[in-house]
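note to self: the first set is below, dont mix up w the second
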Amino acid sequence: MKEHIANLEEKARQLRISIVRALHSSQSGHTGGSLSAIDMVTALYFYKMRHNPAEPSWEGRDRFVLSKGHAAPALYAALSEAGYFPKEDMMMLRRLGSHLQGHPDSKATPGVDVCTGSLGQGLSMANGMALGLKLDGRDNRVYALLGDGELQEGQVWEAAMAAAHYKLDNLCAMVDANNLQIDGDVAKVMNVAPITDKFSAFGWHVLDIDGHDLEAIVNALDAAETVKGKPTVIVARTVKGKGVSFFENKASYHGVPPSDEELPRALECLGEQCNL
């Protein structure tokens, strides 16, 4: 198990490098939230989820909804690493005509299950997928990744209520709780705490973990799969910009890519040399 976790940690490091390089190439996009979410995305795509890069629409696949769609670079890095499209496509992030748009597009990008980007809507779509799979008698699971600032949207809580009502135990939500959003501290913009108590009150099974501890993430995903009769939410305590010291815990890097001067420093933080 330790070797497997170490492999996931190395995978996450490589994906962070891919994200930083892609954002620098595009000179556009969301740095902080992509880096905070990548450990969870890594665990999903390289440990937990059933999926097939050779057949993106395979009916037996688990579904993933990136509700915080602005963190698309994290999803694209995982998809490219998994083999859904060539890794060099990452350098076309947000370019005119590229299939890697600023937010996920299921009609353009192999492996993307649903278009997202308007915050607050992803959990509702995940509900629909989970309920549909249950009605069809399938054992596929649905995973949805939300931001903590996104929890300020009322639709999230309508969806949370519905998921518990319909006993969607094939649904696992994950909250990237990095405490920052584009306008600053989540607690100051519109406090969403206590997140765990709120989901529990809505009838969810709640797990509270360190969102950068791959072993904790893996164990939480395994535990979620055993829960019956209710949906599970994993509240992952993360650091915005994780992995690059001068990005960390700074709301100013919510939607700012690395500059030419910052790229070598960022890659050095990630244990990589810069080859422009």
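second set (the one i keep forgetting abt)
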Amino acid sequence: MLLTISTTHQPATDLGYLLYKHPDKVQSVELSQGKAHIFYPEATEEKCTIALLLDIDPVGLVRNAKGPSGEGFALEQYVNDRPYVASSFMSVAIARAFATAMNGTCKDRPELVNTSLPVEVTISVLPCKGGEYFLRKLFEPLGYQVQATHHPLDSNFPEWGESRYFTVKLTHTIRLKNVLSHLYVLIPVLDNDKHYWVGEHEIEKLLDKGEGWLQTHPEREQITRRYLKNLAPLTKYALAILSAEEQAEVGLEEELPAEIIEKKKTLHEQRLALTVEQLVKSGAKRVLDLGCGEGKLLRLLLLEKQFEEILGMDVSFQSLENARDRLKLDRLPEKQKERIKLIQGSLLYRDKRLAGYDAAAIVEVIEHLNKSRLATFERVVFGFAKPGTIVLTTPNAEYNQKYETLTAGTFRHADHRFEWTRAEFEVWAKNVASVYHYQVHFLPVGPEDVMVGASSQMAIFETIPR
């Protein structure tokens, strides 16, 4: 199966910056059932095209199948179109190959992220349950011009009629991250099937990738139902959340159940909200955000009047600059500006600027450290800085099996050095607490699965009075 994205934006090779893929290199990423290859058939100043080619292993599909899927018949796992057409496998490949672009990140040319480019997308063989009419109903409301070429069942037997397969060309002037989000959601919607287990975490992905367009799409209900594999409870819940967003815009949110309102938050937003809640609960007035990144948590901390002094630290100067922009530090009132300070520093070196604070947040940071440096990190934070309360989060490795973009043994982020199970995290945290005279308790972050827990895990350390 083949997907190409072309642009005539000048210079067209800017496409390589946005997608983090060099035009002179062929790259490959592992998928659960094969490989995705990324290459450029053409790359000039006038026109640039990137291709995503999926090489799906038909034998592997059968070997790893957990049972029949789709509409079902006795030999379906042996006789089907899964290795050859754009389906949920293509969505997984898009997420794996172009994750940075989908998230709207471009370090070398950040201005390109919000630049509308003339784009032409071609999907070589796309199954469409609902035909060309439904295909147009999905893409045309988003502003695309749609050209669809219908394929016959067999060109040697025209009397057999048309198949459900199309070659589709989409043209638009649009931000690239929006194109990728549209394709990620709508390709499996057209196929109306998924090759992986669908649970509540799929609602979060749908809301994330559908942000800014799904809520107002005229086919919102059909998209939601098909994306969630026609599972009625999940569909009903997702549509309730989308309705909550719609009603919130006109001031009616208070009429909806609290659990629906809460579900609108992404996992990261839930993680940050829980961190702030625990810091407020600690009674802290002077707080640290260690590994503050681009300042999302700092912005929430500023909203809490309880925090009289807030210090954000990160090893990346560029992240700190982005945080300054996000927080609009140069435009804050003087009293607000006095409450917050940003510094560059490392969690692997003793720093007297970190001493004397009431509490610290360390959110999704430790997994970026080599395990051999953890002991140094522990001494710096727990032994030297020693805030009264430390709120620390890290991914739960057990939950990774629920992410279809992850193959066995891989981490959620390329920069992660390790990811712990709940048991491994508890062993580490309890040992640190014992050595440095803290007590510790644990909380799940995000919706919990009965078998594998929540996506992230939190430890709250509190000093033991001597």
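remember for set 2: The domain at 267-463 is CATH 3.40.50.150 (Rossmann fold).
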